[in-house]
Amino acid sequence: MNETRKVVTIYLVTNDDSQTKKISIPMSYFKISAFIVAVVVVSLFAGLIDYFGLLVQSIENKKLKIENINLQKQFQVVEGKLDVLQSALDRVGMMTSKLRLITDTQMKDRAEKLNFPAQAMNDSNPPPQERMTGEQMLEQEPIIQTENPVNTLKGEIATEKSTSNYATLVIRIDEAVKDSTLKEQSVIELWEMLSDRQSLLSATPNMKPARGPIGSRFGYRIDPINGKQKMHAGVDIAAPIGTPVRAPADGVVSFAGWDEFYGKLVSIDHGYGVLTRFAHNSQIYVQVGQKVNKFDVIAASGTTGRSTGPHVHYEVRVNGIPVNPMNYILDEE
Question: What CATH class has 219-328?
Answer without folding.
Answer: mainly beta
